[in-house]
Design brief:
Elements (H helix, E strand, L loop, with lengths): L22 E7 L5 E4 L15 E8 L2 E9 L5 E7 L5 H4 L2 E8 L9 E7 L5 E7 L8 E5 L3 E7 H5 L1
């Protein structure tokens, strides 16, 4: 069943844009404005989850219909997350910092193990990285939608 929900929090960009420059829809850290992800990295398909702790719903994210997840941790705190692939471009891949040893405990996306994902610039908690057992890099990240803001950014701003 499809729910009608508002789209991700939008706001005016703090970065000046050249009106001639091509822009792309992006998510930035709500704390420091650092670019985090783009629509091309958004995972729009629905995936299996830990059903007792996760409810899937569709939401407009970066002008795309995507499956998002209302997930509750063992402390009974709820987070709304969307899944994103890591960018292939090495210069853009370092926008997040992954902290901690990946664990399978209470993973919202089994069989993936999770670790914390933070903004590389300000270290704000933005979500979780989900790893396959034994993998050195995450398969995808689950980003907390309320910890991000939508912006239109130039490619140059995305690399900043």
């Amino acid at each position: 069943a499809r729910q009608s929900r508002a789209s991700v929090v939008r706001g005016s960009s703090a970065m000046a844009m050249n009106s001639d420059a091509s822009t792309t829809a992006a998510l930035v850290c709500a704390q420091c404005g650092s670019p985090i992800s783009t629509a091309e990295e958004l995972c729009t398909e629905r995936v299996d989850t830990f059903a007792r702790a996760v409810y899937a719903y569709e939401l407009d994210v970066l002008d795309e219909e995507a499956w998002c997840y209302s997930a509750t941790n063992p402390s009974d705190t709820r987070f709304d997350v969307a899944r994103f692939r890591l960018p292939a471009d090495a210069a853009r891949a370092c926008r997040l910092r992954f902290e901690g040893v990946p664990t399978a405990e209470h993973s919202w996306f089994p069989p993936f193990l999770w670790s914390m994902a933070c903004c590389e610039r300000c270290r704000s908690h933005l979500g979780w990285a989900f790893h396959r057992e034994g993998a050195s890099t995450p398969e995808f990240v689950g980003l907390i939608l309320t910890h991000l803001r939508e912006r239109q950014l130039t490619e140059e701003a995305m690399r900043a």
